[in-house]
């Protein structure tokens, strides 16, 4: 039976895309994998940054799909309203993910920003996608100050909908961690009751594909699920 894993973050810039790539490498050892980005923003004319799906493919070589692309680097519903365009409701994204699950052993779904960022103009969120699909959810978290609060809020929002997180991933572990980072690594599972699955070094996203794939396994602490 196929696994569907939703990857969310406690906010923007916590290392969610690189974490998704690492999870894809991990999953590829057990079968076929596709990584889905339901909504990508900030990829309009003049953009010099690659989309997240493109980054994942560059790092892993895994198959990727991007369902909806929007020009401005804003929350998806805001970017759509700004340009007066319709974007699909999250139910349509969930349907497309189900189709992909029929052809792959694992489907990884990377969200945009945090768990409750609206992915459509009808108020649908990544949490709605996860609930609709009955998916596992991995939460990517920051290493430093503030991460305990942000992580506990994200986990609480999930549990309010009956979703138990599969695990946490520290998205960018500094080469010289300070006291806060070292203690957070202990406190995150203690405060949330959710295991840390992986600790990904800062800068991992700049590795070439061969090096990234070779090193990814050593970043994982325990088995997901």
UniProtKB/TrEMBL annotation:
Catalytic activity: (7R,8S)-7,8-diammoniononanoate + CO2 + ATP = (4R,5S)-dethiobiotin + ADP + phosphate + 3 H(+)
E.C. designation(s): 6.3.3.3
UniProt keyword list: ATP-binding, Biotin biosynthesis, Cytoplasm, Ligase, Magnesium, Metal-binding, Nucleotide-binding
Binding locations of substrate: 41
Keyword field contains Nuclease: no
Broad class of enzyme this protein falls into: ligase
Family: Belongs to the dethiobiotin synthetase family.
Underlying gene: bioD
Active site (record annotation): 37
Annotated protein name in UniProt: ATP-dependent dethiobiotin synthetase BioD
UniProt function note: Catalyzes a mechanistically unusual reaction, the ATP-dependent insertion of CO2 between the N7 and N8 nitrogen atoms of 7,8-diaminopelargonic acid (DAPA, also called 7,8-diammoniononanoate) to form a ureido ring.
Listed cofactors: Mg(2+)
Binding annotation for Mg(2+): 17, 52, 110
SUPFAM superfamilies listed in its UniProt record: P-loop containing nucleoside triphosphate hydrolases
Residues that coordinate or bind ATP: 13-18, 52, 110-113, 201-203
Example of a GO biological process term: biotin biosynthetic process
